[in-house]
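A reminder before we start the practical. When you read a complex entry, don't treat the lines as separate problems. The point of joint prediction is that each chain is placed relative to the others, so the output describes one connected object in space. Small molecules and nucleic acid strands, if listed, are placed in the same frame. In the example below there are two entries. Take a minute to note the order of the lines before looking further.
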Amino acid sequence: MNYPAAVFASLALLLLLAFAWLALSGTRRKAEVVGNERRDRDYPHFSHLPQIKQALVNSDFMYLTDQGYPALAERIRKERRRIALSYLACLRIEFEKLLQLARMVAVMSPNVAVAQEIQGLRLNLEFSYRYHLIYFRLVSGVAPLEAIGSLSNLVSGLTIRLETAMSELGERAALGAELLPHNGGGLDAGG
Amino acid sequence: MNLPPRVEILWAASFVVQLALCGIILSFRHFRRLPFFTTYVCLNLCQVLFLYSIYRSHAQSSHVALLAGWWSEAITLLARVFATIEILHLVLSAYRGIWGLAWRLLGGTSAVVLVCVVLAYRGNPGQALMSADRGYNLIFATALISCMALIRYYLIRVDNAYKVLLAGFCFYACVKILLNTVLYDFLYHQPSRYPFIWQILGVAPYVIVLIVWSAALLRPLPEKQKQQSLPTYVYGRISPEINLQLQAINRQLMNFFKIEEPQQ
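Here is the predicted structure of the whole assembly.
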């Protein structure tokens, strides 16, 4: 097979794979949404922000090490890592909620700016990449836990500002909520 | 008759299924909602009859048969574009902003893939029609998959019937690219086998698509719903704000490992 033919054949296979992914991924997405709702109930993280931040402070761990309790310090280190990972997952949920809000606004708008939407898509991809990078670094134990505290401040501030902005929409925003039942669907929703 | 018996059976099956699909479209009055799709199905039905009559009197590799085949194919391909745009419009017309975005995506993707296809074409006149058909299907499939990705990204609900119609178009276009590429390269120099295998592998996936379409259209299509829309200024206010904040989160994530430890 010559070179252009191989390229075309590969492209065709890639398109078929993309098509299969688009056709089949709707079910997984629904499951993810349900899973996120469950995790939201399990970890109402913004309401417990001070406690979570307290749990992430390094001074307790340092103190225990200095006082000669290495086993306890190790146990606490593991616990804190678990908290950090759960918290990171909650931040991701918050990010996705914001993104969903952005999509909902775009879907309901009569005019959509291409640049804004491309930026939103790019930010989503960037976030996914960084999230997974941090996740694996946390799992491997090389990440400073204090960083998560400042990250949480940023996300909680963002949520409050957006909620304020959305509340200004008044009745129209309430009407827009009628679109929400569609939001679990994607290409698979009709089936 | 120049067609092998197995190919003839497949053509007959294709004809019967297309006829059944036409019957379903008429009985459920889908032609009111899907006039271009109906035209596409009818044109395909006419193409089967037309080519069958041509192949009865001329060899498949004859000049007349080739001309008839490619011209009728060009007409149905054009009809396929209109049918697809019609379905996409039905799915997205309620979302004016997203429909505008989809149009630009369709245009942009098609232009980019067209340039790539032209650049990949080596200028062999013997392969011109095959390359054109492959290029067309590549543009069509890429643009359609981009639109399907857009629909998924914005979590827009698509009725099952429309979803199946779009999936059928997409699947068939991908299969045609593979056939035009792989089969042509491997079998074109074996004139005894090429037309037979080409016919079998070209028609069989289409028959499968037709059967799936028929099953999906065996019920009334959903009523067109008018969605509530926000005033234009809301998007202008909210969307940049969200993007700015998402950007800030990303910056923070980027600096995740750079934050200094608190002084003890």
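Discuss with your neighbour: The longest helix of chain B spans residues 63-92. What might explain this?
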